[in-house]
Amino acid sequence: MAPKKAKKRMEKGSSNVFSNFDQIQIQEFKEAFTIMDQNRDGIINREDLRGTFAALGRVNVKNEELDAMLKEAAAPINFTIFLTMFGEKLKGADPEETILNAFKIFDPEGKGHIKADYFKQMLQTQADRFNDEECKQMFGAFPPDVLGNLDYKSLCYIITHGEEKD
Fold first, then answer.
1. CA 67, CA 72: separation in Å to the nearest integer?
2. What are the backbone angles phi and psi of residue 150, rounded to the nearest 5°?
3. Measuring CA to CA, how many Å separate 90 from each of 31, 40, 47, 106, 128?
4. For the whole model, what pTM was predicted?
């Protein structure tokens, strides 16, 4: 196959990855890519990954670990490959399992519920912080039981399926 045709075919196939995400998501991925591409050459390499880990506080990352990450890509990691890799990772993700795993962080004993007061505190002090009105709405839709526990397994089911289990 002539190089020109091969390039055209790759461009044609690679454009599909952009249709998997909306413009806001693509912009967010682009920002993440730009942060990771520390030398600004348009390709994420071993040193870019090492710098990213260092920025996150992990400084003793072995070359083998970084190389294993890079080998997950079929080609050097430019933005299109980066987006393709995220698309593949997200495609197999089960939303209910993902949400359950997030709640399990707050339930190290695996009881299946967390204290509503503790969860409210986390919602108001971590990441995208909820205000009082947002917490009131959430607990109005998903009230805790009489002991003040939030059954996060049922909550996850409702979030992902839209109705309670029978």
1. 9
2. -105, 120
3. 18, 26, 25, 23, 21
4. 0.49
